[in-house]
Design brief:
It is built from 8 helices and 15 strands. By secondary structure, it is an alpha/beta fold. The chain folds into 2 domains: 50 residues, Vcp-like ATPase, Chain A, domain 2, CATH 3.10.330; 185 residues, Rossmann fold.
């Protein structure tokens, strides 16, 4: 990993800062030394003490620069758990966006090639990979994955294919050309119509173990009256299709 940014924490205040930078807050100016390390303390010019913490996986969702709605942590966990992605795996991804999924994959040691069609989004994602300390593991390419399928199919196959794009069915049709035998496909979609198209494409392509999940999570409320699921929201985020290359 390259040198990543650190979290500076005081109470409920958190700032994501890089060594050698200066940042002004209402609690004073933070001057971050070049040799700062997790566990250190840094004082503002007004004497307020901030604790320096290493950036952890869950912090990525809160602190990386966003270019849209990033994949939720619960969805990322399902993708990683159901595909079994691990260190040394080669991952092909499309729909980089903010890069939250790619960053998590890079943090477990997978080597990720991710495509983002929007050049500005891709530039932000590259910066986010540096902040997350995974730019040695994650290559962000600007372009449309569907235009590179023939070239990629002639290269070494990938262990995992992850997609979060509207044209995912067109890529799924070529999944067996892209994946190693037994490799996994994971497709996230916010709409059930797109999910159905992915499932049909996966079956037509001869993929096995095709499984479709709605990703949903409910918080629990605890009070003197009793305990129950929160009524504050249904916790739905989208749909996830998992399949495997024969």
């Amino acid at each position: 990993m390259t040198d990543a940014a650190y979290l500076l924490v005081h109470g409920n205040r958190e700032y994501l800062l890089e060594p050698g930078t200066e940042f002004g807050t209402d609690l004073g100016v933070l001057d971050i030394p070049e040799d700062v390390a997790a566990g250190d303390s840094v004082e503002t010019h007004l004497g307020t003490v901030f604790e320096v913490r290493e950036l952890r996986g869950p912090d990525l969702f809160d602190h990386l620069e966003r270019t849209g709605a990033p994949m939720m942590p619960r969805d990322i966990g399902l993708v990683m758990g159901l595909t079994g992605v691990s260190a040394g795996d080669r991952v092909l991804d499309a729909g980089t966006g903010t890069g939250i999924l790619s960053a998590h994959l890079g943090r477990v040691g997978a080597d990720v090639t991710t495509y983002e069609i929007d050049a500005e989004f891709a530039a932000v994602a590259r910066e986010n990979m540096t902040v997350a300390g995974v730019d040695e593991h994650v290559e962000v390419r600007t372009g449309d994955l569907t235009e590179e399928l023939d070239t990629l199919a002639e290269s070494d196959p990938f262990d995992v294919l992850t997609l979060d794009t509207g044209d995912a069915p067109a890529v799924v049709e070529r999944a067996t050309d892209l994946l190693v035998s037994g490799g996994h496909l994971a497709v996230y979609s916010p709409f059930v119509e797109g999910t159905r198209e992915v499932v049909l494409a996966a079956r037509e392509a001869g993929l096995t173990e095709v499984e479709t999940l709605e990703t949903i999570q409910r918080e629990m409320d605890f009070s003197d009256r009793g305990s129950r699921p929160s009524t504050g929201g249904v916790g739905h985020t989208g749909y996830l299709v998992i399949a495997r290359a024969p």
